[in-house]
Specification:
With 88 residues, this protein is mainly alpha-helical. It has helices at 2-27, 31-62, 67-87. InterPro entries: Gly_zipper_2TM_dom.
Length: 88
């Protein structure tokens, strides 16, 4: 339930930001453009909020917590540092 509420608030926040940006850009053209730009910006903002929420959740679920992966990464990082020190 908490995740659903967080997702709804995230979409609403992006929709509000998109509406403000769209209304500003449309307002540079005309009043009708401000209305249309606000509606379009809100739609795009909500879509971005939905996709961003899904993608971040996807990457969190894919991440690995294996100790072997961390040791392997540290080993590679130390090799890179050593090779950079050798170049100096």
């Amino acid at each position: 339930m908490k995740e659903r509420l967080i997702g709804a608030f995230r979409r609403a926040r992006y929709a509000a930001i998109g509406a403000a940006i769209g209304a500003f850009l449309g307002g540079l053209v005309s009043r009708n453009g401000a209305s249309t730009g606000g509606a379009t910006g809100a739609l795009i903002g909500a879509l971005v909020g939905e996709k961003r929420h899904d993608v971040s959740g996807f990457f969190d679920s894919v991440g690995s917590d294996d100790a072997e992966d961390e040791e392997d990464g540290e080993r590679r990082l130390s090799k890179i540092r050593n090779s950079a020190a050798d170049d100096d």
